[in-house]
Amino acid sequence: MITETFKDIITRVLGVQYSNKIINHLEEKGIRNSDGRPFSNESIRLFVNGYRDNREVESAIVELVEKESQAAKQLSERIERVVESEKSA
């Protein structure tokens, strides 16, 4: 189950409109609801707010947050290298 602490991390990394990003990630991984359809925005909000459990969905959300967090970190490092190189130029 997603905790309040991890919910805060999700919104910080993915933004407050995280549902579509998560839905797209689940679709890419072939993860669908019990009816075989893509998850709805409401279902995603229920998972993120800790009202519904699904280990597969939660694992995919963790994977997405890790991936996006790492991408943001790499971008920050690249920007910092450019800034530093311009300072010394």
Largest sheet: none
Roughly how many Å apart are the termini? 50 Å
Number of helices: 4
Whole-number mean pLDDT: 95
**Strand portion:** under 5%
Instruction: Point out poorly predicted stretches.
Output: none
Note the run of SSEs as H and E.
HHHH
Radius of gyration: 16 Å
Structure description:
The protein has 89 residues and is mostly helical. The protein has one domain (4-88). Helices cover 71% and strands 0% of the residues. It has helices at residues 4-14, 19-28, 41-48, 55-88. Helix 1 (4-14) crosses helix 4. The longest helix is centred in the C-terminal third of the chain and has 34 residues, at 55-88.
In short:
The protein has 89 residues and is mostly helical. The protein has helices at 4-14, 19-28, 41-48, 55-88.
Q: What's the arrangement of secondary structure elements?
A:
Blueprint: H1 4-14, H2 19-28, H3 41-48, H4 55-88
Helix pairs in contact: 1-4, 2-3
